[in-house]
From TrEMBL:
The keyword Signal applies. PROSITE patterns: PROKAR_LIPOPROTEIN. Keywords: Signal. The keyword Disulfide bond does not apply. It comes from the Bacteria. InterPro entries: DUF333. It comes from Zophobihabitans entericus. Residues 28-48 are annotated as: Disordered. This is DUF333 domain-containing protein. Residues 1-20 form the signal peptide.
Length: 107
């Protein structure tokens, strides 16, 4: 009798561990989480020129703008630190655009 009682208890225990899939779902109005990664549309084979890429972005460099206003020419030079602007004045002298701008603004 003890064997049957132990066997019945074991069966009930295993059934409880397995659990029934009787979960109630509550509709929250939210979309369910996606189960698959979204796929991106294929890239178009032809491009449409909207002219937007040619439009200037942001504000001009104040030092470069000042150099041009006084009749100079802006020359971009690539150095180990990156690109720097040089202002070539009417008389041919070249100065760092930012240094020249700061010198002239202080006056």
């Amino acid at each position: 009798m003890k064997k049957y009682l132990a066997l019945a208890a074991l069966v009930l225990l295993l059934q409880g561990c397995a659990g029934a899939n009787n979960h109630q779902t509550i509709d929250t109005g939210l979309a369910p989480a996606p189960t698959e990664k979204p796929t991106l549309p294929a890239k178009p084979t032809t491009s449409i020129d909207t002219g937007l890429a040619k439009a200037p972005i942001g504000l001009p460099n104040p030092a470069d703008k000042y150099c041009l206003e006084v009749g100079g020419q802006v020359i971009n030079k690539t150095t180990a630190e990156g690109v720097r602007s040089v202002c070539q004045l009417k008389d041919g002298t070249q100065k760092d655009a930012w240094e020249y701008y700061r010198e002239q603004i202080k006056r």
